[in-house]
Amino acid sequence: FNRMVGKRLALVDDQPGVTRDLREGEGRLADLRFTVIDTAGLEDASDEVLAEIAKAACAPGETIHNEPHEVSPETVVWALKMADAEGLRRRAKHQFEESLEAMAAE
């Protein structure tokens, strides 16, 4: 999130659950400008919360409508769940690698 918006707006910690607040920032990639939303993790988010996030992302005027194909709120929910799963996978891999390093150092 912080890299995408070019500012240190979100707290970053390896420990899950440090922050639970939703952050928004303006991102830019070449000539494309977009809103970036840090959901602070979705593992505890209800389907209703995900639906609200998706509905907001698909609201008229949002940059999601610049996609070459239609993006539905259901597609956004799927993408949120996949992105969160990937983040959890990377965090688990990082923690596993740290454990191996600690064991090797003993």
Secondary structure category: alpha+beta
Strand content: 5-15%
Q: Distance between the terminal alpha carbons, to the nearest Å?
A: 35 Å
Biggest sheet: strand arrangement: 1-2
Residues in helices, as a percent range: 40-55%
Unreliable stretches (pLDDT < 50, length at least 5) are none
Number of strands: 2
Number of helices: 3
Mean pLDDT: 78
Structural notes for this entry:
The protein has helices spanning 2-5, 47-57, 73-105; strands spanning 23-29, 32-38. The mean pLDDT is 78. The chain has a two-stranded antiparallel ribbon. The chain is elongated and about 55 Å long. A hairpin with a 2-residue loop joins strand 1 and strand 2. Helix content is 45%, strand content 13%. Helix 2 packs across helix 3 (73-105).
Secondary-structure map with pairings?
Blueprint: H1 2-5, E1 23-29, E2 32-38, H2 47-57, H3 73-105
Antiparallel strand pairs: 1-2
Helix pairs in contact: 2-3
For this entry, give a set of tags.
106 residues, alpha+beta, two-stranded antiparallel sheet, 3 helices, 2 strands, 45% helix
Outline:
The chain is α+β, with helices and mostly antiparallel strands and 106 residues long.
